[in-house]
Amino acid sequence: MGTRVYRAVGGVSLSVRPGECLGVIGESGSGKSVTALSVMGLVASPPGVITGGAVRFEGEDLIGAPYETLRRRRGDRVAYIFQDPLATLHPLYRIGDQLAEAIRAHHSISAGEARERAIRLLNDVRIPNAGARIDDYPHKLSGGMRQRVSIAMALANEPDVIIADEPTTALDVTVQAQILALLDDLRRDRGLAIIFITHDFGVVAQLCDRIAVMYAGRIVEEGPTAAVLEAPAHPYTRRLIDCVPELGQGKRRLEAIPGLPPMVDALPEGCAFAPRCTKAVPDCARGDIALERTGTRAVRCLMPEESA
Ligand code: SF4
């Protein structure tokens, strides 16, 4: 094993309230998933190590909390939905048994009660004929249905927070729209707090109240979704939005951001976006750039976009 240590994520500060949906957006490798997994200590270790910081849930710091504390919270108060439902579901167990196990891991109820609750959950996520489908194996369901089962599993113990890591990326757009509508209903009906990780601004616009944009393991911009989409302050956010095609807006050049995000073992000095930024000046590469807050907006840039 190598001995070099690299910073994948650092100085990220996020909060989410009951009933609120926070979107975390950025290119692949920007640190979104590592941030999400760190919340409940799920970063594979080795090689990952959390060297500092705090994750406060109801006043309790979960970083460094004993394994039993984390285990009690995981899947009960804080639940995850991952991108690939086939990786969440065990292929050799019926979906009903897997749902019942998720419930009985945290609550001492009978097998019959757990099964009834599992059927209700499948109904909640709009799986047709839930009473019969509960005995299906995962391979008998479509990708969209399997993702609904993953959502049902995340909801099994009525958590306070759901962390959804690109849960619709592998689905076609119509199923994606249904899943997003479902999550939106659930947060409104149950007051769920959702942290939604994505690289898709369309998804963010549909579901999220606030967004945090990540680049090279740091938050570079944060604010209410409508305000950030209307007038992005960070040049990276601006360039990301320019990459999104808009239907019915007439002809325009579809921009791409030249270059690639930096590797964690080769982060440049100062602003990590500088090598790709058209506004970069020598000061951008001269040391740390702070995340400056103004009201509900925050941006980490020496020369934020003027429209913001
Ligand atoms: S700090 Fe400089 S290089 Fe970084 S985004 Fe702002 S203008 Fe561009």
Task: Outline the secondary-structure elements.
Blueprint: E1 21-25, H1 32-39, E2 56-57, E3 60-61, H2 67-73, E4 78-81, H3 85-88, H4 95-104, H5 111-124, H6 130-133, H7 143-155, E5 161-165, H8 173-190, E6 193-198, H9 201-207, E7 210-215, E8 218-224, H10 225-230, H11 235-242, E9 292-294, E10 297-299
Helix pairs in contact: 4-5, 5-7
Iron/sulfur cluster binds at residues 235, 271, 273-274, 277, 279-280, 284, 289, 301-303.
Protein described:
The protein has 308 residues and is of the alpha/beta class. The chain has a domain at 231-308. 32% of the residues lie in helices and 14% in strands. It contains eleven helices and ten strands. It has helices spanning 32-39, 67-73, 85-88, 95-104, 111-124, 130-133, 143-155, 173-190, 201-207, 225-230, 235-242; strands spanning 21-25, 56-57, 60-61, 78-81, 161-165, 193-198, 210-215, 218-224, 292-294, 297-299. The protein has an eight-stranded mixed β-sheet with strand order 4-5-6-1-7-8-10-9, with helices on both faces. The chain has a two-stranded antiparallel ribbon with strand order 2-3. Helix 8 links the parallel strand 5 (161-165) and strand 6 (193-198). Helix 5 (111-124) crosses helix 7 (143-155). The longest helix has 18 residues, at 173-190. The N and C termini lie far apart (46 Å). The structure holds iron/sulfur cluster. Iron/sulfur cluster is lined by residues 235, 271, 273-274, 277, 279-280, 284, 289, 301-303.
